[in-house]
Amino acid sequence: MTEPRLIEIDTRDHGIVVLPEPEWCTGVMHETFQPEPLRGWRRLRARLRRTPAVDYRPRRSEIVHQGPGIDITVDTGDGPQRLMELTLWQDPFPEPTWEQGTDVYINAYMLDDGSADYDVDGLQRLVTGLLEAAGQVRLVARQLADERRRGGR
Asked: Which is an annotated Pfam family here (predicted)?
């Protein structure tokens, strides 16, 4: 088993935090708090005049490991409809009240907007899509179980 890559994140409340990054982590949340790059001195000067100083660094509890999103979709009369997005997730420094603690878990982002009407054929396609979606959820569950067996807690 290869050693996990170590990353450094500068936080507002704990300074530089060094932590291992799981191989499944996309790193997207580590970059969330970075200020956008400025090009050109004039743009920088103008921005400094109109913008108060902002600390873009996260709090330590805001650091998360996030895997790639997996879209769960079904067929509708208007084409594919996203039902949810599943993401492997871990909070390495959770607040005491967070239910999952430091365990790796699945974050399910539910998409509640929209509706679709179905006829008999459409319902058959919906059933097929839901069964395929169930297969995708089952694969994500296996990925989570594998990660926990490897020590992702």
From this structure: DUF6907
